[in-house]
C-alpha cells in the first residue's frame, strides 16, 4: 500500500545507490557501541574491582536509550536531511564511546557517556532505516533488513574480539580513541549515498502541526499492529544473553565458551540474518516472524532434560543466536514494509518500531533470570519457551483478525 502524507519536491538525477550489502553499514555504530557497552565495559569494570551489582546498574542505565530513543526520532525528519542527522549522531556515538572508555575509572560519570553514545547509535539506526528504506524498492527490502541485522551482529562480534587487546595493548588514551573511532567507519557510506533533502512542508510547519503529523503516523493500524508484534515476547530469545553463564553446567571450558560466544555466535548470527531473504519470498514477513518464534520455542523445549555436554552447549548457544538473528532480520523487514512510499516521517516511524523491539529483550531477561534463580536451567528454559510459544499462538490469532480487517496488502 502506498503511503503519501506529503511528497518530496522533484529532485535532479542522482548517483546510483550503493549495493544493498553496503547499506547494511547503517547499523555499524549500533553493533560497535553495543559490544563496547555490553561486553568490553563490564570486563574493564570488573578488572577495576567494581561490584557486580554496580556493573549491572551502570549497564541498565546505559541501555535505557533502547526504549527512549523513539522520543527523539521525529527530529530526524525535521529541519535537516537524514544524512546530516546520521552523521551528527554517528559522531555523537563515537565521542560518547571514547569518553566512557577514558573515564572507566570514574563509574559515576561513564554511564552518562554510554547513555549518550547508545542514544546516538539508536538514532543513527532510525535515520538509516527511514533513509535507506525509501531508497530501495519493496522487493529489495528483505535483503536490506537482512544486511542491517548481519552488519549489526558482525560489527559487534568484531568489536568484542578486538576491544580488550586494543585497549590494553595501546598506550593510554590511544586505545580508547581507536575503539571509539570504530563507530565512525560508517561515515563514508553516509557521504556517498543519495539522500533527499528534508521535506519542505515539515520544515515550515510549527511544532503543533508537526506533532499532529507524527500522531497520525503512530495511530495507523499497521503501525499499532506492528508495535504489538514487536513488544510481545514472540522472538525475544533472551536466552542468548543467559546461556553463556551456564557453560560450567555443560562441562565446557572457559576457553571454549569464549570461542563459541565470540566467533561462533557472530557466524551463527550472520548466517541466520542472511537466510531470511530466501525464506521471505515464500512466506509473508509477519507469518515468518511468528513461525521463527515457534521454532525457537520448540528448540528451547528440546534442550530441557538433555545430557549437559559441551556439544549440547554449543548447539544451544549457536541455535538460539541463529534464530534470534533471523528474527532481527525479519523485524527489520516488517518495519521497512510499513514505511510505504514518499513517507516524510519514515525515520520517525522506523525509529519507533526499531526501539519497540528492544522492550521484550529487557523484560524477558528479567523473567528468565528469576526462573533460572528459582528453578535452575531447566526451569529457565521452560519459562522462556512457554512464554514465547503462547505469545506466538496468540499473535497468530490476532493476525488472522487483522488480516481480514485491513486487507492483505497492508497487513502482510
Q: What would you say about this model in short?
A:
The chain is mainly alpha-helical. The protein has 18 helices and no strands.
In helices, the fraction of residues equals over 70%
Average pLDDT works out at: 85
**Cα radius of gyration in angstroms:** 21 Å
Outline the biggest β-sheet: none
**Structural class of the helix and strand makeup?**
mainly alpha
Shape: globular
Number of strands: 0
Percentage of residues in DSSP E strands: under 5%
Spans of 5+ residues with little confidence (pLDDT < 50)? 1-13, 406-412
Distance between the termini: 10 Å
Number of helical elements:
18
**Helix and strand element order:** HHHHHHHHHHHHHHHHHH
What's the helix and strand layout?
Elements: H1 20-23, H2 28-47, H3 52-63, H4 65-68, H5 82-102, H6 110-135, H7 141-169, H8 174-181, H9 187-192, H10 200-204, H11 207-218, H12 221-231, H13 254-280, H14 285-303, H15 310-337, H16 346-356, H17 359-406, H18 408-411
Helix pairs in contact: 2-3, 2-5, 2-6, 2-7, 3-6, 5-6, 5-8, 6-16, 7-8, 7-13, 7-15, 12-16, 12-17, 13-15, 14-15, 14-17, 15-16
How would you characterize this protein structure?
The chain is mainly alpha-helical and 412 residues long. Helix content is 72%, strand content 0%. It is built from 18 helices and no strands. Helix 2 (28-47) runs parallel beside helix 5, helix 12 (221-231) runs parallel beside helix 16 and helix 14 packs across helix 17. The N and C termini lie close together (10 Å).
Amino acid at each position: 500500500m502506498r503511503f503519501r502524507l506529503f511528497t518530496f519536491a522533484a529532485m535532479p538525477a542522482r548517483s546510483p545507490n550503493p549495493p544493498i550489502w553496503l547499506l547494511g553499514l547503517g547499523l555499524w555504530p549500533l553493533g560497535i557501541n553495543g559490544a563496547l557497552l555490553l561486553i568490553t565495559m563490564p570486563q574493564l569494570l570488573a578488572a577495576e574491582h567494581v561490584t557486580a551489582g554496580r556493573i549491572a546498574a551502570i549497564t541498565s542505565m546505559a541501555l535505557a536509550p533502547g526504549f527512549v530513543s523513539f522520543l527523539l526520532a521525529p527530529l530526524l525528519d525535521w529541519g535537516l536531511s537524514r544524512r546530516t542527522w546520521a552523521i551528527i549522531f554517528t559522531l555523537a556515538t563515537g565521542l560518547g564511546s571514547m569518553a566512557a572508555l577514558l573515564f572507566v575509572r570514574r563509574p559515576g560519570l561513564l554511564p552518562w557517556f554510554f547513555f549518550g553514545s547508545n542514544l546516538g547509535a539508536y538514532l543513527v539506526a532510525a535515520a538509516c532505516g527511514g533513509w535507506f528504506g525509501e531508497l530501495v524498492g519493496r522487493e529489495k527490502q528483505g535483503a536490506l533488513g537482512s544486511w542491517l541485522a548481519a552488519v549489526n551482529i558482525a560489527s559487534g562480534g568484531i568489536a568484542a574480539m578486538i576491544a580488550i587487546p586494543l585497549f590494553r595493548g595501546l598506550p593510554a588514551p590511544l586505545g580508547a580513541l581507536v575503539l571509539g573511532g570504530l563507530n565512525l567507519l560508517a561515515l563514508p557510506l553516509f557521504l556517498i549515498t543519495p539522500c533527499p533533502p528534508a521535506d519542505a512542508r515539515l520544515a515550515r510547519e510549527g511544532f503543533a502541526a508537526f506533532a499532529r503529523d507524527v500522531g497520525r503516523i503512530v495511530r495507523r493500524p499497521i503501525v499499532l499492529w506492528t508495535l504489538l508484534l514487536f513488544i510481545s515476547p514472540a522472538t525475544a530469545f533472551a536466552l542468548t544473553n543467559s546461556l553463556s553463564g551456564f557453560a560450567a553446567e555443560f562441562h565446557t571450558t572457559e576457553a571454549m565458551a569464549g570461542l563459541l560466544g565470540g566467533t561462533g555466535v557472530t557466524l551463527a548470527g550472520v548466517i541466520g540474518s542472511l537466510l531470511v531473504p530466501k525464506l521471505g519470498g515464500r512466506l509473508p514477513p509477519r507469518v515468518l516472524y511468528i513461525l521463527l518464534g515457534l521454532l525457537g520455542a520448540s528448540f528451547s523445549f528440546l534442550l530441557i532434560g538433555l545430557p549437559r555436554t559441551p556439544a549440547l552447549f554449543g548447539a544451544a548457544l549457536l541455535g538460539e543466536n541463529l534464530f534470534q538473528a533471523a528474527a532481527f532480520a525479519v523485524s527489520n523487514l516488517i518495519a521497512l514494509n510499513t514505511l510505504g512510499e514518499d513517507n516524510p516521517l519514515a525515520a520517525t516511524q522506523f525509529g519507533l518500531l526499531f526501539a519497540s523491539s528492544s522492550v521484550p529483550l529487557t523484560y524477558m531477561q528479567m523473567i528468565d533470570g528469576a526462573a533460572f534463580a528459582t528453578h535452575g536451567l531447566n526451569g529457565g528454559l521452560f519459562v522462556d519457551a512457554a512464554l514465547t510459544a503462547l505469545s506466538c499462538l496468540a499473535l497468530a490469532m490476532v493476525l488472522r483478525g487483522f488480516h481480514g480487517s485491513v486487507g492483505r496488502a497492508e497487513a502482510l
